[in-house]
Design goal:
single chain, Arc Repressor Mutant, subunit A, Alpha-Beta Plaits, 2 domains, 5 helices, 37% helix, elongated
Length: 153
């Protein structure tokens, strides 16, 4: 899909103000509502807009500990990776899972939990029990400096 300035402006605005009405969005980009809505739908159908969600304050939910967890696997086979990814996707505390290169790890996880006891349970009773996990290195986040930054459209 070829993006023009209107499409890019729509993407920029919706990333930071996802609750804009179509009328407000149209006003801000300088189009009438009908063509604006057609463009938004085309961006959704093309897969550029993959969803809409609310950003929730983890601390206000009692989730005060964020950990970055590097996972090493015993074998680098598609089956082993698929098994790990399936198992890790079932853990609600894991909010992000990245297959990475350039580290002594194969995956980086971002986990958000209540406290250190909850992290210990997650690590020892669930993550390390996934077949193929041979190493775990955890860093605890002191403060988020940038979170949920919009992509440059």
């Amino acid at each position: 899909m070829e993006l023009d300035r209107y499409d890019r402006h729509i993407l920029t605005l919706l990333q930071t103000q996802g609750r804009l009405t179509n009328q407000d969005l149209a006003d801000q980009i300088g189009l009438s509502p009908s063509p604006c809505l057609r463009r938004v739908r085309a961006l959704e159908e093309a897969g550029l807009i993959t969803g809409y969600h609310a950003q929730v304050d983890a601390r206000k939910l009692g989730l005060s500990l964020m950990a970055l967890v590097h996972i090493s696997m015993d074998r680098h086979t598609p089956e082993r990776f698929t098994n790990f990814e399936t198992a890790i996707s079932e853990l609600p505390e894991v909010v992000e899972c990245l297959l990475i290169t350039g580290q002594d790890a194969d995956y980086q996880l971002k986990a958000v939990v209540r406290d250190m006891d909850a992290y210990q349970d997650l690590l020892l009773n669930r993550i390390t029990r996934i077949e193929g996990v041979t190493g775990v290195h955890t860093s605890f986040v002191l403060r988020q400096v940038i979170a949920n930054r919009s992509l440059a459209a």
